Amino acid sequence: NAGVMQNPRHLVRRRGQEARLRCSPMKGHSHVYWYRQLPEEGLKFMVYLQKENIIDESGMPKERFSAEFPKEGPSILRIQQVVRGDSAAYFCASSARDRAGEQYFGPGTRLTVT
Amino acid sequence: SQQGEEDPQALSIQEGENATMNCSYKTSINNLQWYRQNSGRGLVHLILIRSNEREKHSGRLRVTLDTSKKSSSLLITASRAADTASYFCATADNQAGTALIFGKGTTLSVSS
How far does A63 lie from chain B, in Å, by closest CA? Predict the structure, then answer.
């Protein structure tokens, strides 16, 4: 009964490199959400996806960030040309329903940009 | 945009005491959820209370919701050292309902 899985758990990138974060939702869940948590802060919503569709990306930075949830395979959050300010914990959540559904969170990926 | 704000920011108590954390939000909601986050770990879902509910219990947890005051409280009874963590409230609004809005959390320290 696997929960939401994220990998890698820790990722170190130099400035200018690309970061790829992966998320596999819970079995039976088709809705995925990405959140970012800066140090000493609460989580901030980034993007909500269903299979092959971006439903709400109102929290995504306009540049360098993209997300996808293909028909097969995990959801990917991609950050191009990373900067130090991208250092944060990135959490993925999934739900069986979209509206006000209970979201289950993965363990997060801690990205450090050096 | 609406935001859950937890109060206090930090709370230190002894084992066996009760811990109460409060959360306020700004606009109408469908539900309110409480999560726990141990240091450096992911979030654990604790309890969800819907807008038409006033109180909910789960083990040592008691959550209340007052929609007229736009506030919620989380009570942990007979606290244990293992309850040491950060606690967040999160709301989903009526219209979109897709994104959870988190506060900055209350950091609870329970000493033995």
Answer: 21
CA–CA min distance B97, chain A (Å):
5
Region B62-77: what's the mean pLDDT? 96
C-alpha B81/C-alpha A58 separation (Å) is 39
**CB-CB neighbors (< 8 A) of B44 in chain A:** 105
Q: Which band of pLDDT confidence, cut at 50, 70 and 90, is reported for residue B3?
A: low
Tracing tokens 């604790």 back to the chain, one arrives at B46
Q: Which amino acid is at A55?
A: I
Q: Is B99–A59 a contact, with Cβ atoms under 8 angstroms apart?
A: yes
Return the DSSP state at B3.
-
Q: Which residues pair with A56 in a beta bridge?
A: A48
Write down the pLDDT at residue B4: 66
Closest residue to B43, CB basis, from A40, A91, A101: A91
Q: Pairing between strand B106-111 and B10-14?
A: parallel
B91 burial (CB, 10 Å; 0-12 / 13-18 / 19+) is: buried
Contact between B86 and B74 under an 8 Å Cβ cutoff? The reply is: no
- Rounded distance between C-alpha atoms, residue A26 and residue A45, angstroms: 19
